[in-house]
Amino acid sequence: MNRLLPFFGFLLLVALLGFGIWWNTQHDQREVPSPLINKPAPAFALPTLDAPDNTVSKASMLGKPYLINVFASWCVACGEEHPVLMSEASQLGVPLVGYNYKDAPDEAKAWLEKHGNPYSLIIVDREGRTAIDFGVYGAPESFLVDSKGVIRYKRIGPLTPAVIEKELKPAIAVLAKEVQP
Amino acid sequence: MTGRKTLLAFRTQSALLLLLMLFAGALFAQAIEPLPFKNHTEEVRFQHLTRELRCLVCQNENLADSNADLARDLRREVFEQMQAGKNDAQIKQYLVDRYSDFVLYDPPVKPGTWLLWFGPLLILLAGATVVVITVRKRSRAGAPAESTDSASINEEDDW
């Protein structure tokens, strides 16, 4: 028995290594959990892309849930995400609000013209100031905001069909149930 | 005449070179974006503070060293909050509220991080317990057998 003890110790270490590898394939190490979930979204007042004189604020968006999607024409992963948004946006059941992040308006417009526009509204944060309040650290990011202006779900990185099915749609379904009674 | 011309050409060239060098300096200065500090103490405080904060884009760099776009924005934010008279704890809290404890290089001691802070101590204690138990066992079993039973000693030497 004593002879086998080191071998068991070794097996334990192998199991630990295996667990570590498995854990890393399941979790994105770069993902920082947002402290803003289930907290009120920060107040914002940002111009729209189409009409820079019009500002959209958090107050004006209250009353209905919506999904904010942070994107930019310079963001490579946004290009990967874009076709997914194009096909899924209409089936989400909540309006998709584009958040143009640190981008030149002309380039953003050209980009949308080329790839299509899945957004029902686009707000522009050229300096990226409001984005700091939202804890944005890399596009694309998506925030699900409920009718009371509370952030209920956040996705860091591209929305994929799998993520939409497994995470986003259930989160939206919860919001829909809250509205009915 | 030609000598004068070459001299003139040389002068224009060196003037151009000088100009280019000046521009190169300007470009470099822009890359490190000097902030208008009021005095040296403020600059030292800023450097110290940004060194304790993590850049979220390139996660093994601190805010002071990172050249990422977001790091630049956050440095500006930290600088402006310093100008507004906020203390280091307030500025850190501002960033923690938005980016979670992850922005701090030193994780705070709280229930969620107890394992992180005291885990090594637990492992050390577990190791010490094992050592104590083994030593006691051996001294109890080994004392009478030491001189007579050489086979058991050999067995223990195996590993």
UniProtKB/TrEMBL annotation, chain A:
GO terms for cellular component: outer membrane-bounded periplasmic space; plasma membrane. PANTHER family: THIOL:DISULFIDE INTERCHANGE PROTEIN DSBE. Belongs to the thioredoxin family. DsbE subfamily. Residues 35-173 form the Thioredoxin domain. It is found in: Cell inner membrane. GO terms for molecular function: disulfide oxidoreductase activity. CDD domains: TlpA_like_DsbE. One of its GO terms (biological process) is cytochrome complex assembly. The keyword Amino-acid biosynthesis does not apply. Pfam families: Redoxin. Its main location: membrane. InterPro entries: Periplasmic_diS_OxRdtase_DsbE, Redoxin, Thioredoxin-like_sf, Thioredoxin_CS, Thioredoxin_domain, Thioredoxin_ResA/DsbE_sf. It comes from the Bacteria. It is a single-pass membrane protein. The keyword Oxidoreductase does not apply. Keywords: Cytochrome c-type biogenesis, Disulfide bond, Redox-active center. This is DsbE family thiol:disulfide interchange protein. SUPFAM superfamilies: Thioredoxin-like.
